[in-house]
């Protein structure tokens, strides 16, 4: 496959003929932007594209129960927003009668949101947390 930078003249002509204002091509390591201002088409040098972050993942309730962000005997939530967690670390609990069921982090990452308030009754599959996996972590 040829490099688009080698064909800037042809791409510029097409951009002008189609009366488009902007053409942006992104590759794994660079970005090429052609801007058509009506009078001319110019190249805007693009900086390296930032690495694409792994998509965030939603941690869901593994069972129905009452959501607890902390152990009933503690005052502080066990997982705080912006905290780094390891796979298997408890993020919260589901209380089912007198049983406390831990809700573990499915993989290592940073906790970006808690979606449910303390004491909320949740069903199976209810979204509880949003986790941004660390780059390079296996699913």
Description:
This protein is mainly β. The chain folds into 2 domains: 7-44, no CATH class; 57-133, RNA polymerase II/Efflux pump adaptor protein, barrel-sandwich hybrid domain (OB fold (Dihydrolipoamide Acetyltransferase, E2P), Beta Barrel), CATH 2.40.50. The protein has one helix at 8-17; strands spanning 22-26, 31-36, 41-45, 57-60, 65-68, 84-85, 90-96, 99-104, 109-114, 121-122, 127-133. The strands form 3 sheets. It has a 4-stranded antiparallel β-sheet, with no helix packed on it. The two termini are 31 Å apart. The mean pLDDT is 84.
At CATH level 3, the topology of the largest domain is OB fold (Dihydrolipoamide Acetyltransferase, E2P)
Roughly what percent helix?
A: under 10%
Structural class: mainly beta
Count of alpha/pi helices:
1
CATH superfamily of the largest domain: RNA polymerase II/Efflux pump adaptor protein, barrel-sandwich hybrid domain
What's the level 1 CATH class of the largest domain? Mainly Beta
CATH architecture of the largest domain: Beta Barrel
With strands numbered from the N-terminus, the spatial order across the biggest sheet is 4-11-9-6
How far is it from the N-terminal to the C-terminal residue, by CA?
31 Å
**Gyration radius, rounded:** 24 Å
> What is the H/E string?
HEEEEEEEEEEE
Strand content: 35-45%
């Amino acid at each position: 496959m040829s490099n688009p930078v080698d064909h800037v003249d042809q791409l510029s002509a097409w951009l002008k003929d189609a009366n488009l204002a902007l053409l942006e091509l992104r590759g794994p390591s660079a970005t090429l932007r052609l801007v058509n201002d009506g009078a001319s088409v110019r190249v805007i040098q693009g900086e390296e594209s930032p690495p694409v972050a792994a998509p965030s993942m939603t941690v869901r309730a593994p069972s129905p129960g009452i959501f607890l962000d902390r152990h009933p005997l503690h005052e502080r939530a066990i997982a705080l927003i912006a905290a780094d967690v390891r796979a298997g670390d408890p993020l919260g609990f589901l209380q089912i009668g007198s049983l406390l069921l831990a809700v573990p982090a499915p993989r290592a990452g940073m906790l970006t949101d808690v979606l449910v308030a303390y004491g909320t009754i949740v069903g199976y599959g209810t979204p509880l947390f949003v986790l941004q996996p660390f780059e390079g972590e296996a699913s």
